[in-house]
Design a protein that fits this description.
The chain is an alpha+beta fold and 267 residues long. The protein contains 5 helices and 15 strands.
Length: 267
C-alpha cells in the first residue's frame, strides 16, 4: 500500500514539475515520444496501398496476349493501386510535353502506316533513259521485277514509267499486242476474280472512281491490261491480279503515244 501511494505521488509530481510536455508510447516502436503542449499528436507513417494482380495463365505472349490479356504479365509482382495513364503521344501526365520535332516524327510514322499517305517515290516519275535492248521503236517493255515500263524511242533512248504489277502468284511473262484502247473504260470483274472477291461489284461504269483509271490498253485476248489507277500510292508495289497499272497522268501520256497493234514484251 505504501509503494502504490509513493508511485502515485511521484507521477503527480512529474506533471506539476513539467507542465509543458507529457510522455506517450509509440505502439509501433515501443519507444517513449515527447509530446509538447499545443502540438497535434504524431500520425502513423504513410503506407502505399498495393493490390495483388490476379494470376493469369501464360497465353503465349506477343500478339495473342495483347488481344486477350491486359498487358505484360505481372504474376508474382505487386502493382501500385493508382497509376498514371499515358497521354496520346506516350507521355506520362505531369511530365513536360514531347519535343515538337519528336512529335512531328511520331506523326510521320503514323501516317506512313496509312498507305494512302505514302509519298510517291520520285524514281517512278516519267523520264527519258538510255535503252540498249533489241526491241524496236514503239515497243512497250515491262520490267516486272523492277516495276518499270519502257516505251522504246530509238537512238538508244526510251521513256520510262513507274508501274504496279501482279501480286505474288499473279505475275506473268510473255509477248502480247495492244488489241484495243479505251478512254475511261468500264470495268467488269472476271469470274475468276469474283470467286476470290465476291464483294466486288458485277459492273462499274468508267470514271474517276473506276479501278481501271483514265485509260486502258488491252493486251491481246487476255484479261490483262495496261491501265490507269486512282491509287497512285500503289505504284512500285506488287498489287494487281496481273494487270499493269500506272498513274492516271502517266497512262494518259502513254495512251497518246501507242497505237493499236503495238508489241508488248512482259519480262
Amino acid at each position: 500500500m505504501f509503494q502504490k501511494t509513493t508511485l502515485a505521488l511521484l507521477a503527480g509530481a512529474s506533471l506539476i514539475a513539467f507542465p509543458h510536455h507529457a510522455l506517450a508510447i509509440d505502439a509501433a516502436s515501443a519507444e517513449p515520444t515527447v509530446i509538447y503542449a499545443g502540438q497535434p499528436a504524431p500520425q502513423p507513417p504513410m503506407r502505399t496501398a498495393y493490390v495483388q494482380q490476379p494470376q493469369r495463365s501464360n497465353m503465349g505472349g506477343g500478339f495473342i496476349e495483347f488481344l486477350f490479356g491486359d498487358g505484360p504479365s505481372s504474376q508474382g509482382t505487386q502493382q501500385p493501386m493508382y497509376q498514371q495513364q499515358p497521354d496520346y503521344y506516350g507521355n506520362r501526365r505531369g511530365l513536360p510535353p514531347m519535343d515538337p520535332q519528336q512529335q512531328m516524327i511520331y506523326q510521320q510514322q503514323e501516317s506512313a502506316a496509312d498507305p494512302t499517305q505514302r509519298p510517291f517515290d520520285p524514281k517512278y516519275e516519267k523520264q527519258q533513259v538510255e535503252y540498249h535492248g533489241r526491241e524496236g521503236v514503239g515497243t512497250i517493255v515491262v520490267d516486272t521485277p523492277n516495276k518499270f515500263l519502257y516505251l522504246v524511242q530509238g537512238d538508244g533512248r526510251a521513256l520510262r514509267y513507274g508501274i504496279g504489277v501482279g501480286k505474288p502468284g499473279f505475275t506473268w511473262a510473255g509477248v502480247k499486242t495492244v488489241s484495243a484502247k479505251k478512254e475511261w473504260p468500264d470495268w467488269t470483274p472476271p469470274a475468276e476474280m469474283l470467286v476470290r472477291r465476291p464483294d466486288l461489284p458485277r459492273h462499274m461504269v468508267g470514271g474517276p472512281e473506276n479501278p481501271l483509271g483514265a485509260r486502258a490498253m488491252y493486251l491481246g485476248s487476255s484479261l490483262y491490261r495496261i491501265h490507269g489507277s486512282n491509287e497512285p500510292w500503289t505504284i512500285g508495289t506488287n498489287v494487281s491480279s496481273g494487270c499493269i497499272r500506272m498513274r492516271n497522268e502517266d497512262v494518259i501520256d502513254l495512251y497518246g503515244r501507242v497505237n493499236v497493234g503495238a508489241k508488248v514484251v512482259v519480262m
